[in-house]
Amino acid sequence: MSKEVRVTFEPQGKTILVPRGITILEAARLAGIKIRSECGGQGLCGKCRILVRPVDATTKITDVERRWLTDSELKQGYRLACQAKVLENLVVIVPLETRLVKAKIIEYGYEYPLPFKPLVKKVVVRIPKAKLSDLRPDLERVMDVLRDNMGIEVDEIDYHALIKLPQVLRDGEWIITVTIWDGNKVIDFEKGDTSKHMYGVAIDIGTSKIVCHLVDLHDGKSLAVGSLENPQLAYGEDVISRIRYCMIKRSGLKELRAVVIDAINFIIGELCKKVGINRNNIYEAVVVGNTAMHHIFLGIVPNYLALSPYVPGVRRSLNVKARDVGLLINSGANVYLPPIIAGFVGADAVADIIATGMIESDDIVMLIDIGTNTEVCLGNREVIWTASCASGPAFEGAHIRFGMKAIPGAIEHVKIIPKSNGYDVKYSVIGDTRPVGICGSAMIDVIAELLKNGIIDRSGRFVQDKEDARIKVGKDGKEFIIAYSDETEIGRDIVITQKDIRQIQLAKAAIYAACKVLMRKAGISEADIRRVYIAGAFGRHIDAENAKIIGLLPNVPSGIVEFVGNTAVAGARLLLKSRIARKYAEELLKIARYVELTVEPEFSQEFLKATYFPDIKEHMHSTPT
Domain of 132? Predict the structure, then answer.
């Protein structure tokens, strides 16, 4: 057995014994210390910077660390937690910019009005008491009353409900409440009249967050809403990192599934406490998420989603029992998962489409859900073209020198003001505090401002003859200072580098190219689009005009661009409370047209063109409003 060593994390003040030879990142996970690791510990993001004392208590500095850390930082004892392995007792100091702080989670989104028609209902019935002159079995008595008095021809009875029926009948003195799903399927028997208590839960399993709405199935109102960061973040910020974890570790899928199920059950428990209800009175759950989250939730091996030809294990909608997937609600409750369109265009995209009303629209609508994997949908009630593009995690801070999520300390908006002797920068920070880094919305602003002021050209390069105190040469070439060191919380200049600009170019080019390919497939131009919906947490912060200036969004009038919030959970709510929504989910499979961009020749051509920024002069003169 390997020797154990003592690791103390500061400023958390947490000490833990760990096996000698594991990485500091693994030690942090064991200690429950949250450290940024956008790449899942692969050495690709450089975000897990920590200080070690003494410096010789870990393994030697790696080439990966030399790429991300300066010589000065290495001498001070800075290391990457994913690279440095523990050899002796040590203290790990976790800098402010490395701590994983909970981002504000968007719990609501636009919800298209659909008729309230839930699939769950309760009926209270009085059953004729058994006697010697009437020897019908208990189940037959109940089924006869449901058929003769209620017009309900029972087709299916939950096993767990059946085995308790005799006791329920007698405890309730032959008055019971029958819970029925989808018209004729009995999922529970309860003594007496419990008809007032009938609830459902809508669950959005996002890559970075989990949101749950506890819904009253009498009127469709959300009684309480709860959310958590997805605990799978400890295994990687993006779905590919998590799929890779399932590939390289035998128990990987089991681990990822367990943490997400535990998180959902915790949220549900907290919501029930808040409202004062019994979780056994939750009779249906709707679960949405991208294809990887969907598969991991169900325990389906997700590995082949990351391998050509990228096919899911299942596409159709599913109805499973809560007990079979580990949800701690009524054991016979139905858990509905909408269908998957194809590839990474999953059940969350289906929910987005339903929530925005695209499926009922006569007008051409574009829906963009920006994330590590960005989904783009384009069309109307007749046909909806869909695609998923690997836009990468740059907008969420990965691969950007001072990039971070939209959390306290992140610069969220930037304005560059030209002066006679150079440039001034005005910026706003989330949480009204000193800045620690920059989030995606600020990156869009900065690049748009650099273009407007002629500091960078269409290729993204810094213009050679531009000289200013804010323009300097760093490790990755030229960089522009957004906030000087004496203004920041970390005591270093917060800059955007040439390399950062390139990362944003690649990310925005993937999204724009996906939009162009779908427009071409649909045979339309920007002028035909009547509404552009931007879904998700990221879209809530961005400046639409600046997003057009850098070529992230199609050049449509800013007035038709609408930020719709968390439409995935809004769609899940609709699917929970409306049969019409579920009918639309099934119909969507017939009208959706999926485009696999990795094998689409046009995508490569459009992507290369889109890496260049639009002509700023032409944009300023032609942009529709």
Answer: 120-191
